[in-house]
Amino acid sequence: MSVASPSLPIVSRETQERLTLFAELLTKWTSKINLISAGDVPHLWERHIEDSLQLVPLVERGVSITDLGSGGGFPGIILAIAADARVTLVESDKRKCAFLREVSRATGCRTQVINERIENVDIPPAPVVTARALANLSRLLSWTEKLIAADGYALFLKGQQAVNELTDAERDWHMTVTSIPSRTPGGSILKISDIRRV
Questions:
Q1: 99: CATH
Q2: Burial status of residue 113 (CB atoms within 10 A of its CB: 0-12, 13-18, 19 or more)
Q3: Range of the domain at 41
Q4: In this predicted model, what pLDDT tens digit does every residue of 10-31 receive, in sequence order?
Q5: Model pLDDT for residues 164-184, shown as the tens digit of each residue
Q6: Assigned domain for 147 exists
Q7: Number of domains in the chain
Protein backbone atom coordinates (compact mmCIF):
# COMPACT_ATOMS: atom_id res chain seq x y z
CA MET A 1 0.00 0.00 0.00
CA SER A 2 1.44 3.35 -0.95
CA VAL A 3 0.74 6.64 0.79
CA ALA A 4 0.17 9.77 -1.26
CA SER A 5 1.81 13.00 -0.20
CA PRO A 6 -0.25 16.17 0.12
CA SER A 7 1.15 19.44 -1.13
CA LEU A 8 3.93 20.56 1.23
CA PRO A 9 4.99 24.02 0.06
CA ILE A 10 7.63 24.38 2.79
CA VAL A 11 9.85 21.69 1.24
CA SER A 12 11.58 21.31 -2.10
CA ARG A 13 10.46 18.80 -4.70
CA GLU A 14 13.46 16.57 -3.95
CA THR A 15 12.67 16.67 -0.23
CA GLN A 16 9.03 15.83 -0.88
CA GLU A 17 10.11 12.84 -2.97
CA ARG A 18 12.35 11.62 -0.15
CA LEU A 19 9.54 12.08 2.37
CA THR A 20 7.22 10.10 0.10
CA LEU A 21 9.78 7.28 -0.08
CA PHE A 22 10.04 7.37 3.71
CA ALA A 23 6.23 7.15 4.00
CA GLU A 24 6.10 4.18 1.65
CA LEU A 25 8.80 2.31 3.58
CA LEU A 26 7.20 3.09 6.93
CA THR A 27 3.83 1.83 5.69
CA LYS A 28 5.47 -1.38 4.44
CA TRP A 29 7.39 -1.99 7.69
CA THR A 30 4.41 -1.13 9.91
CA SER A 31 2.67 -4.28 8.66
CA LYS A 32 5.53 -6.27 10.29
CA ILE A 33 6.56 -4.24 13.33
CA ASN A 34 4.68 -1.64 15.37
CA LEU A 35 6.09 1.68 14.09
CA ILE A 36 2.75 3.49 14.16
CA SER A 37 -0.72 2.16 14.88
CA ALA A 38 -2.58 0.56 11.98
CA GLY A 39 -5.32 3.16 12.41
CA ASP A 40 -2.79 5.97 11.89
CA VAL A 41 -1.53 4.67 8.52
CA PRO A 42 -4.22 6.50 6.46
CA HIS A 43 -3.37 9.69 8.40
CA LEU A 44 0.42 9.26 8.29
CA TRP A 45 1.15 12.61 6.66
CA GLU A 46 -0.92 14.92 8.87
CA ARG A 47 -0.48 13.08 12.18
CA HIS A 48 3.20 12.20 11.96
CA ILE A 49 5.16 13.67 9.04
CA GLU A 50 3.65 17.17 9.04
CA ASP A 51 3.72 17.19 12.85
CA SER A 52 7.48 16.54 12.73
CA LEU A 53 8.02 19.04 9.90
CA GLN A 54 6.98 21.80 12.32
CA LEU A 55 10.44 21.56 13.85
CA VAL A 56 12.29 22.34 10.60
CA PRO A 57 12.06 26.16 10.95
CA LEU A 58 13.31 25.83 14.54
CA VAL A 59 16.67 24.24 13.68
CA GLU A 60 19.65 25.52 11.72
CA ARG A 61 20.13 23.70 8.44
CA GLY A 62 22.76 20.97 8.75
CA VAL A 63 22.81 21.05 12.56
CA SER A 64 23.73 18.00 14.63
CA ILE A 65 20.73 16.55 16.49
CA THR A 66 20.30 13.75 18.98
CA ASP A 67 16.81 12.26 18.66
CA LEU A 68 15.60 10.24 21.65
CA GLY A 69 13.37 7.20 21.26
CA SER A 70 13.39 7.53 17.49
CA GLY A 71 10.95 4.65 16.86
CA GLY A 72 9.40 5.14 13.44
CA GLY A 73 11.66 8.11 12.66
CA PHE A 74 9.67 10.97 14.17
CA PRO A 75 10.99 13.57 14.28
CA GLY A 76 14.60 12.41 13.67
CA ILE A 77 14.38 11.06 10.12
CA ILE A 78 12.08 13.90 9.06
CA LEU A 79 14.66 16.46 10.27
CA ALA A 80 17.47 14.53 8.56
CA ILE A 81 15.55 14.74 5.29
CA ALA A 82 13.97 18.20 5.46
CA ALA A 83 16.61 20.14 7.44
CA ASP A 84 19.64 18.23 6.10
CA ALA A 85 20.49 17.61 9.77
CA ARG A 86 23.08 15.12 10.99
CA VAL A 87 20.95 13.05 13.34
CA THR A 88 21.94 10.51 15.97
CA LEU A 89 18.91 8.25 16.40
CA VAL A 90 18.70 6.57 19.81
CA GLU A 91 16.35 3.58 19.91
CA SER A 92 16.32 0.55 22.22
CA ASP A 93 14.24 -1.75 19.95
CA LYS A 94 16.45 -3.73 17.52
CA ARG A 95 13.73 -4.11 14.89
CA LYS A 96 13.02 -0.38 14.89
CA CYS A 97 16.76 0.24 14.54
CA ALA A 98 16.77 -2.03 11.47
CA PHE A 99 13.98 0.11 10.00
CA LEU A 100 15.81 3.35 10.82
CA ARG A 101 18.99 2.10 9.13
CA GLU A 102 17.11 0.94 6.04
CA VAL A 103 15.10 4.14 5.64
CA SER A 104 18.24 6.26 6.24
CA ARG A 105 20.06 4.35 3.48
CA ALA A 106 17.13 4.57 1.05
CA THR A 107 16.53 8.29 1.57
CA GLY A 108 20.21 9.29 1.77
CA CYS A 109 20.04 10.66 5.32
CA ARG A 110 23.10 11.52 7.39
CA THR A 111 22.26 9.48 10.46
CA GLN A 112 23.84 7.29 13.09
CA VAL A 113 21.55 4.68 14.67
CA ILE A 114 22.36 3.69 18.26
CA ASN A 115 20.60 0.58 19.57
CA GLU A 116 20.71 1.39 23.28
CA ARG A 117 18.53 2.52 26.17
CA ILE A 118 18.68 6.31 26.45
CA GLU A 119 20.01 6.29 30.03
CA ASN A 120 22.96 4.13 28.92
CA VAL A 121 23.98 6.16 25.86
CA ASP A 122 27.48 7.66 25.92
CA ILE A 123 27.78 10.16 23.06
CA PRO A 124 29.10 13.72 22.73
CA PRO A 125 26.62 16.48 23.66
CA ALA A 126 24.60 17.81 20.71
CA PRO A 127 23.43 21.37 19.93
CA VAL A 128 19.84 20.10 19.62
CA VAL A 129 18.01 17.23 21.33
CA THR A 130 14.55 16.17 20.11
CA ALA A 131 11.81 13.79 21.22
CA ARG A 132 8.20 13.13 20.30
CA ALA A 133 5.55 11.23 22.27
CA LEU A 134 8.22 9.56 24.38
CA ALA A 135 7.95 10.35 28.11
CA ASN A 136 6.88 13.03 30.57
CA LEU A 137 8.92 16.21 30.66
CA SER A 138 10.76 15.47 33.92
CA ARG A 139 12.08 12.20 32.53
CA LEU A 140 12.98 13.83 29.20
CA LEU A 141 14.99 16.49 31.04
CA SER A 142 16.86 13.87 33.10
CA TRP A 143 17.89 12.12 29.88
CA THR A 144 18.63 15.34 28.00
CA GLU A 145 20.83 16.94 30.66
CA LYS A 146 23.93 14.89 29.75
CA LEU A 147 23.22 14.76 25.99
CA ILE A 148 22.83 18.47 25.26
CA ALA A 149 25.59 21.01 24.59
CA ALA A 150 26.00 23.84 27.10
CA ASP A 151 24.50 26.39 24.69
CA GLY A 152 22.09 23.93 23.09
CA TYR A 153 18.34 23.49 23.28
CA ALA A 154 15.74 20.75 23.26
CA LEU A 155 12.63 20.54 21.08
CA PHE A 156 9.88 18.36 22.51
CA LEU A 157 6.59 17.76 20.68
CA LYS A 158 4.04 17.49 23.48
CA GLY A 159 0.29 16.87 23.77
CA GLN A 160 -2.43 18.36 25.92
CA GLN A 161 -0.60 17.71 29.21
CA ALA A 162 2.31 20.05 28.38
CA VAL A 163 1.32 22.73 30.93
CA ASN A 164 0.89 20.17 33.72
CA GLU A 165 4.21 18.53 32.81
CA LEU A 166 5.96 21.90 32.93
CA THR A 167 4.51 22.62 36.37
CA ASP A 168 5.72 19.25 37.66
CA ALA A 169 9.17 19.58 36.09
CA GLU A 170 9.78 23.05 37.53
CA ARG A 171 9.98 21.51 41.02
CA ASP A 172 13.26 19.83 40.12
CA TRP A 173 14.56 21.69 37.09
CA HIS A 174 15.60 25.19 36.14
CA MET A 175 15.05 25.88 32.45
CA THR A 176 14.19 28.55 29.92
CA VAL A 177 11.05 27.54 28.03
CA THR A 178 9.36 28.83 24.90
CA SER A 179 6.01 27.18 24.18
CA ILE A 180 5.03 27.21 20.51
CA PRO A 181 1.48 26.27 19.48
CA SER A 182 1.40 23.06 17.48
CA ARG A 183 -0.65 22.39 14.37
CA THR A 184 -1.87 19.32 16.28
CA PRO A 185 -4.99 20.34 18.24
CA GLY A 186 -4.17 20.83 21.91
CA GLY A 187 -0.48 20.17 21.33
CA SER A 188 2.58 22.35 21.72
CA ILE A 189 6.27 22.43 20.89
CA LEU A 190 8.47 23.12 23.91
CA LYS A 191 11.80 24.76 23.13
CA ILE A 192 13.91 24.40 26.26
CA SER A 193 17.41 25.67 27.06
CA ASP A 194 19.52 26.41 30.19
CA ILE A 195 18.58 22.98 31.61
CA ARG A 196 19.93 22.26 35.10
CA ARG A 197 18.70 20.64 38.27
CA VAL A 198 17.37 22.92 41.00
A1: 3.40.50.150
A2: buried
A3: 13-197
A4: 678 999 999 999 999 999 999 8
A5: 999 999 999 999 999 998 888
A6: yes
A7: 1
